[in-house]
Amino acid sequence: xxxxxxxxxxxxxxxxxxxxxxxxxxxxxxxxxxxxxxxxxxxxxxxxxxxxxxxxxxxxxxxxxxxxxxxxxxxxxxxxxxxxxxxxxxxxxxxxxxxxxxxxxxxxxxxxxxxxxxxxxxxxxxxxxxxxxxxxxxxxxxxx
Length: 144
Known about the structure:
Helix content: 25-40%
Strand order of the largest sheet: 1-2-3-4-5
Mean pLDDT: 94
Low-confidence stretches: none
CATH class: Alpha Beta
Structural class: alpha+beta
């Protein structure tokens, strides 16, 4: 498949597409309810389409001024190795350069070897200055 076999749209995926892309890319699952609430609140979203099927995505979330986070970078395995991750990140970088104020902080969490891709776009590890941390809200910790 050639690069011109793909086209980009700037809109969040549907909940079903979002879930399918995350699963195919081996990412942690999310709830349909959470996706339905969160996807429309994206500051920026991109999908890569092949024959009208979404085969890649990425989003930027945050407060639109001080803090931005790059999330949900995913490409279907059958379409990996074709530069689509770079294309998604390039579009995200262009958005941030265009829209984010001077000195805004842009963060992301890199799974596995994805740090190699993100490094190409200027991202560097924050440790030891700061350490990324996370907390997943679950039924078990709601009962505390």
